[in-house]
Amino acid sequence: MIRLNRFLAQAGVASRRKADGLIADGRVAVNGDVVEDLGTKIDESSDRVTVDGRPVRVRGRAVYWMLHKPAGYLVTLDDPFERRTIRDLIPDLPGGVFPVGRLDRDSEGLLILTSDGELAYRLTHPRYEVAKRYVVHVRGEMDETAAGRLRAGVFVEGRKTAPAKVEVFERSARGSVLQIEIHEGRKHEVRNMCEAVGHPVVSLKRVMFAGLSLSHLPAGDHRSLTGAEILRLKKAAKIGKIGRHNTA
């Protein structure tokens, strides 16, 4: 038996969190009966699952891609206001492939896309403490006191951020350049952290996620992950059993 939200994630319908939303909204049925209990378990071999009336089946091979998102694009596949989204960068994106985690519209950098819902869930859940590294340009000269506060954690919206790795590369009255590594995934976290110590962000680029780096991938381009890179992601997500994957 398997939890329904996990089954939907493995089928590439949505991440486990979004799958819970589909269930709560009454859009998921098992053997013809609408299910709203988030704890529902199913038998993959015999139960028939539908979402909005369409059958759901687990794919045999998952897809794993890396995208260098430029600034100015939303990390979503559809926008009701017709703003630019990452789908505009990958018009041939296969169905069931979705972005992993957040990256602000005004930020750029590494974004993983996959149809592997279980991996996506683990990579974005705070429990697994997946590392994310950013190069950040901020206003003003950041001294060691401010950098130390970032390392120790600062209060953002009433909650203290987890300790971060911070290295200041350049500092002057005009601005500073630093590298920040975190393992949380709160909305606008790096921007809010820098704002909290008096240094608003000018630009932000994610250069590493779960051990993978952009290397020389140009902004706006994407590529399939290698087998070694997929293994690295699964190791970061603490997934012990490695299944079949598709790098094409």
Q: Helix and strand string, N-terminal first?
A: EHHEEEEEEHEEHEHEEEEHEEEHE
Q: Please give the largest β-sheet.
A: 10 strands, mixed
The DSSP helix count reads 7
The name CATH uses for the topology of the largest domain is: Alpha-Beta Plaits
What is the top-level CATH class of the largest domain?
Answer: Alpha Beta
Descriptive overview:
The protein has seven helices and 18 strands. With 248 residues, it is α+β, with helices and mostly antiparallel strands. It folds into three domains: 54 residues, Roll (Structural Genomics Hypothetical 15.5 Kd Protein In mrcA-pckA Intergenic Region, Chain A), CATH 3.10.290.10; 102 residues, 2-Layer Sandwich (Alpha-Beta Plaits), CATH 3.30.70.580; 79 residues, Alpha-Beta Plaits (2-Layer Sandwich). The strands form four sheets. Strands 7, 8, 9, 10, 13, 14, 15, 16, 17 and 18 form a ten-stranded mixed β-sheet that branches. A four-stranded antiparallel β-sheet has the order 3-2-5-6. The longest helix has 10 residues. The mean pLDDT is 91.
List keywords for this structure.
ten-stranded mixed beta sheet; 22% helix; 248 residues; Alpha-Beta Plaits; Structural Genomics Hypothetical 15.5 Kd Protein In mrcA-pckA Intergenic Region, Chain A; elongated; 7 helices; 3 domains; alpha+beta
Question: What order do the helices and strands come in, and which of them pair?
Answer:
Blueprint: E1 2-3, H1 4-10, H2 16-24, E2 28-30, E3 33-34, E4 41-42, E5 49-51, E6 54-55, E7 62-69, H3 86-89, E8 98-99, E9 108-114, H4 117-124, E10 132-138, H5 144-152, E11 155-156, E12 159-160, E13 165-172, E14 175-182, H6 189-196, E15 201-209, E16 212-213, E17 222-224, H7 227-236, E18 245-246
Parallel strand pairs: 7-18, 9-15
Antiparallel strand pairs: 1-4, 2-3, 2-5, 5-6, 7-9, 7-17, 8-9, 10-14, 10-15, 11-12, 13-14, 15-16
Helix pairs in contact: 1-2, 1-4
